[in-house]
Design a protein that fits this description.
single chain; alpha+beta; 5-stranded antiparallel sheet
Length: 202
């Protein structure tokens, strides 16, 4: 793991981590430590995502961990919420692969995290929802509907729901809601606007 970690330390915008079979972090590259506001890798070893993220986000991470640990199959291009360098939540792309011992048994996972903007061309080329995702990200303040987004993507609302479930593990409506929540949280942290005014906007 250490050798892989040294490799990823020098790749821009790609962050490396490794966990044991109980989803406890065993290694992490420097950018991850910085985003979690930790000074050294020793502070992350033995902790779990529940020590660093809101419960509903950590639960999703652990669920994906268990899927890889149970099936032995990698989880590639999983789009999920993660921390930016400013400690705000935004969309990122995660890959998780099984770690095996000498007997071939899965004993942990290793993975990478990269920004959604940097990885989206690899994540959404054939899903027919790239335009829909960008529409939601740019117009989440307005009153948009799932039917409107589906029409933009050239699919039915049911097809849109299925495609979002395949890529994001959530419905288009949930994606819209979480995008709005992330944007509202960022505005609360970055501005002095009253909470009521921000709530009205979103």
């Amino acid at each position: 793991v250490t050798q892989f970690q040294q490799l990823f330390e020098n790749l821009p915008d790609v962050y490396f981590f490794a966990k044991d079979a109980h989803s406890r972090l065993m290694a992490a590259s420097r950018p991850i430590l910085q985003r979690l506001q930790l000074q050294s890798e020793d502070q992350i070893i033995g902790t779990t995502d529940h020590d660093h993220f809101p419960t509903h986000i950590a639960d999703n991470f652990v669920r994906d961990d268990q899927q890889v640990l149970t099936t032995g199959q990698p989880l590639i291009n999983r789009v999920e919420i993660w921390y930016t360098e400013h400690r705000l939540l935004d969309w990122y792309v995660t890959d998780k692969l099984p770690l095996r011992n000498m007997q071939g048994e899965v004993v942990g996972i290793m993975g990478t995290v990269r920004s959604y903007e940097g990885g989206r061309k690899h994540v959404l080329p054939y899903t027919q929802i790239s335009d829909a995702v960008e529409y939601i990200r740019k117009r989440h303040r307005g009153k948009i509907t799932v039917a409107e987004v589906a029409a933009l993507a050239g699919v039915s609302p049911r097809q849109l729901h299925r495609r979002f479930q395949e890529v994001f593990g959530m419905s288009a409506l949930d994606f819209l809601t979480k995008t709005r929540m992330q944007a509202a949280s960022e505005e609360l942290l970055k501005t002095d606007r009253p909470i009521v005014d921000i709530a009205i906007d979103f």
